[in-house]
Design goal:
Number of helices: 6
Largest sheet: 6 strands, antiparallel
CATH class: Alpha Beta
Structural class: alpha+beta
Shape: globular
Radius of gyration: 14 Å
Helix content: 25-40%
Distance between the termini: 24 Å
Number of strands: 6
Length: 136
Amino acid sequence: MAARSDGAQARRGGIAGKRRALPYDADTAPVLIWTMDADKLCTYVSQTWLDLTGRIFEEELGNGWADDIHPSDRDARLEAYAHCFDQRSPFTLEYRVRRHDGEYRWLLDKGTPRFASDRISSATSARPRTSPSASA
């Protein structure tokens, strides 16, 4: 994993408190971690995700993270995720994500919804960094 540059740290500096939603271990794990809230909006992405995409934390929040998905995979991936989320079931999805250099890579995304009372409070997924280049 590439080390964070001073510029990247400065860009993320204002949101350091928000980034602490998960333990430090999430940012140092060799997988790409994200969480969603009950409205299916992204609330957290790990540093490894930011290093892969080259984007900043604020760009990934809400539905911003979907901009990283290959256009040919985006709709099917979002529909499959929404279905699993609504069914409260774990999911495994494979799709391409744009790296910081513009190349696409295949990811295997395994997620599990977490529940609070009678509704999903969030979903967390670990995306192993995978595969050779994926054709655009």
